[in-house]
Design goal:
- It is a multi-pass membrane protein.
- It is found in: Cell membrane.
- This is Putative RDD family membrane protein YckC.
- The protein has one domain.
- It is about 65% helix and about 5% strand.
- The protein contains seven helices and two strands, in the order ααααβαααβ.
- It has helices spanning about 20, 25-55, 60-90, 90-95, 110-135, 135-150, 160-165; strands at about 100-105, 165-170.
- It starts with 17 loop residues before the first helix and ends with a strand.
- The relative contact order is 0.16.
Length: about 170
């Protein structure tokens, strides 16, 4: 019979929970997913970019149409990404690559955790760095440090650590 010491420090497992949730996504898979997500929004910017010169050259109706379509497309993509994130922890890019965001214990991760625990803290930290230093570079450095932490053995970025999330193969 083993006696339990009531004054003993608690013991916690520091494993990432990969066994419960599947294989961790590779750095390359995560990078490709981010590129796909960026390209979807860049497409909206290109559409708007066509409309702005049209407005300046007198074709205000055509220019307004292009800009309006770009804004509507951007909003539609944003809403679709939010729906995908709330259903299965994916964006358009993550879905196309076959990866998803889960909690480090393997549980599903809702859209609110992704937005308020993964994205918002890094954005606030980058914005604060810009304000304190009066430069854009400080915020970009925060974002760079966030993503470069993926090269640790755990393959987790800073936003993953903050939100208790990881990206796995779907």
């Amino acid at each position: 019979m083993t006696q339990v010491n009531p004054y003993q420090a608690p013991v916690a497992s520091l494993e990432l929970g990969v066994e419960e949730s599947g294989e961790l996504a590779t750095r390359g898979q995560r990078f490709k997913a981010v590129l796909v997500d960026l390209l979807t929004f860049v497409g909206c910017g290109l559409i708007a970019g066509i409309g702005v010169p049209l407005q300046k050259n007198g074709s205000t109706m055509a220019g307004t149409l292009f800009v309006s379509l770009a804004v509507l497309a951007g909003v539609a993509i944003l809403i679709y990404n939010l729906v995908l994130m709330s259903r299965n922890g994916q964006t358009i890019g993550k879905r196309s690559i076959g990866i998803r965001i889960v909690r480090q214990n393997g549980d599903d991760c809702g859209a609110l955790r992704i937005i308020f625990m993964r994205a918002l803290p890094i954005a606030l930290l980058a914005g604060l760095a810009n304000i304190v230093t009066h430069t854009q570079g400080a915020g970009q450095l925060v974002n760079l440090i966030d993503v470069l932490l993926i090269f640790r053995a755990s393959h987790l970025c800073l936003h993953d650590n903050i939100a208790d999330t990881m990206v796995v193969v779907a």
